[in-house]
Amino acid sequence: MMPGPVRAALWAGIAFLWLPVVLLVAYAFSASPVPFRWGGFSLRWFAALAANERLLEAAWLSLRVAAGAATLAVLLGGATGWVLARHGPFAGRALLGALAGAPLVLPEVVTGLSLLLLFVALESAIGWPAGRGALTVLLAHATLGSAYVAVIVQSRLASRERDLEEAALDLGATPAAAFATVTLPLMAPSLAAGWLLAFTLSLDDVVLASFTSGPAGTTLPVALFSMLRLGMTPEVNALATLLLAAAGLTLAAVGLLLRRRG
Amino acid sequence: MRIALRLLPGLWLALLVAAPLALVAVMALSWQAEGVPPYSPPWGGEGINPENLRLILEDPHYRDSLAQSLVTATLTAGLCLLLAAPMGIAIARAGRWRDALLAAVLLPFWTGFLIRLGAWIGLLRDEGWINGLLRALGLVEAPVPLLYTEGAMLLGMVHAYLPFAVLPVFAAATRLDPALEQAAADLGATPGRAFLGITLPQLFPAMAAAFLLVLIPAAGEYVIPELLGPPEATLVGRVVFQEFFGNRDWPVASALALALLALLILPILLFQRLGREG
């Protein structure tokens, strides 16, 4: 049973979420230099985007930072989730769990400020990291991403008993072999999902990057943010259209893969 | 080996989560100074500086920014929940359309947070799409100022956080036992009464989680007030940026961050508790 108002709210909510997105895409093909005004069909803003070196450079940096941060987040968050789910009770487990989840609930300004203070203190104490740029942004994003990965991995492992691993050990597998052949495949889907999530978070972040990047580490969101402070341009429409197309294709590909498997 | 594996996440978290937070606390007790970096620590000869925290508590500028942030975050979370609760329930009950509807809620996210804010800027400007529509319909003569208002800021916040609020309600609604509502109907309850009396109360914890999931990040929001809000919407995120980057007053920025954390500690603990139970 679904009461009418519930259904109405669903459609209103979806319309609200999609309205700006649909208009963005539609007007990306308008020739008018004023955003959201129709001036005839044109691809000129895609061409302008392709010629905007500042944005392209920022986008390339962002992709590399996001890939690196997501990979580091999967390694460390995966290890954290596994330790929390499979190592039973040990001294400091509650503290580890609290620290692992902290970046999920801390406001971004607090995380960003705190990480910048860390990098400044480290630089004056041991000289590394020297200055701030892509590396410090990557570490900040990996910190946030690893918290998400840890939660996903932990809940995935907690949903399965340890009996499979124990069976492998009983049958004579070394702990390392049991981990590689049983636990790791069990974790794999959550590691993949976590990588994708950490990658997306990194590509969308302004606050952590503003705090932890120097003038040398302008990521795409930071560049976009400074553009948008001056107003909107039709180039942003074109960029949004490309991003949405990429996201739609990725989602379709993931859906196809899952359907084939399952 | 096992101990080493346990230590690795511990060291990472100690270095990149615990130590930075401790540094914020130390910075809040430090002195602003000329130089790079622009502070002198409590062990720098001047001792502990209690003035930053006192300033946050006493100066109306900072107190107002904290209060304004809490009000805005509460409004945002309330409005999100108002839409997200029925949306989550409806999607959970949509049968074979469930995955498609869930994707419809999540997909706009991949256009990027900033780009969606850019879209709102384009729509809300004086020469923007909405004002154009209002004028074309003959409803207004001159453009209505929509952008850089409290309303635009709230709209942007609700738009950005709505999907986060849908997910917990959706997840809880899929786990509901339909037999309970059926039993209520068999015992003579009208569908509306069965929904309000049986289904809705079971979703209260998830709705509380959704509310807090929006409230906590919204309280520290910086980008949305900066791009859509009026200059006088000095939410705490904006003031932290202003103090840190504008005034280069790292100690006051840190004290403000601590104050924000102190205000959010109860919602955070409550949220984690709901997460463990759900």
UniProtKB/TrEMBL annotation, chain B:
GO biological process entries: transmembrane transport
Matching CDD domains: TM_PBP2 (cd06261)
Bilayer topology annotation: Multi-pass membrane protein
Transmembrane intervals: 66-89, 101-123, 152-173, 194-219, 250-271
Keywords: Cell membrane, Membrane, Transmembrane, Transmembrane helix, Transport
Subcellular locations according to the entry: Cell membrane
InterPro entries per UniProt: MetI-like, MetI-like_sf
One GO CC term on file: plasma membrane
Sequence ranges assigned to domain ABC transmembrane type-1 in this UniProt record: 66-271
Domain of life: Bacteria
SUPFAM superfamilies membership: MetI-like (SSF161098)
Family: Belongs to the binding-protein-dependent transport system permease family. CysTW subfamily.
Protein name as annotated: Putrescine transport system permease protein
Species of the source: Muricoccus pecuniae
